[in-house]
User: Fold this.
Amino acid sequence: MNSSQTVPAADWHPQNWALLCQRLASGCLPHALLFRGQEGVGKKQSALAFAHYLLCQNRRSNGPCASCAGCRLVVAATHPDMLCVEPEKDGAEIKIAQVRELIAFTERTPLQGGSRVVILAPAESMNDNAANALLKCLEEPGSNTVLLLVCQHAGRLRATLRSRCQSVLFGVPPHALALDWLGGQGVEPDKAEPLLQLAGGGPIKALLYAQQAVWEQRESMLSGLVALGHGRKAPAQLAQEWSGFELKAVLEWMGCWVQEMVRYQATGNERFLVTSGYRKMFRHFAGRAGCRRLLALEHWLAEQRVLVASHSHLNAQLLLEAGLSRWLDLATTRLPVASGECD
Assistant:
């Protein structure tokens, strides 16, 4: 695990951490746990931290000792009784050969005399054959074996696998803690808040955005939307300019801005327009569009994010043109709504 992404698991998720430690101490820890939650909230890091705790030879009440042979091996990523199973590259599947290696690992005698720990992440990336192979392992696990499945989209994981794991839900860490942590990672305060908003409250995802220069992408997008609204650029032209941007981040930024307009349009309170320097544009678009069209665009953007996450061969140019055309349509004069409808 990259040290820059080390997270204080017990501080971010104290209830989960206390529950896991309590079950371990009482001998009631299940053989398979499903760590689930949205992207960037510290699920995998918590799984790594708990694996470290399981393999510590001199456990304390709330964490590993950090000095025993087991701890040193975990820190060096050379512990013989710990296995991490991941896709071979980003966006790839976990294959049956990897799960067969996992099964063979669980059948061996622990070399350090304690537990064997497997971390499988993301669990939903297993292909069908790999999932079938893992099912048997979950039904008949080897002794002294703990499997930690990390999952962002639990609905994509087979129900037969979910039912054989005890689920642990990881929510968004407290906002102040997330901002403090991002500051400790070198993210400037004026950038941390918007990046955390873009990441849906997930600080690790926000840090990744900071490292990928997504902030610069944001500024380019906002200036482009101004030009689009003033008629200086057409949707197709702007879509071409955005072709080098990460598509998922584009959709997420636009979704955040539409949410700002929805809150402002519903309340009339400008404190919801948090994107400094662009309140005039958002006020104009919100006033012209009305609640129903804003919500329709928010729904469409959410649908496209799901498509982008599940398909690797989408036509990005056409998708961006469609999104920008819908954005521009917000500024067209809207028809009167019937009495009692959301304006």
Remarks:
- Residues 92 and 167 are 24 Å apart (CA to CA).
- DSSP finds 15 helices and five strands in the chain.
- Confidence is low (pLDDT under 50) at residues 335-343.
- The first strand starts at residue 32 and ends at 36.
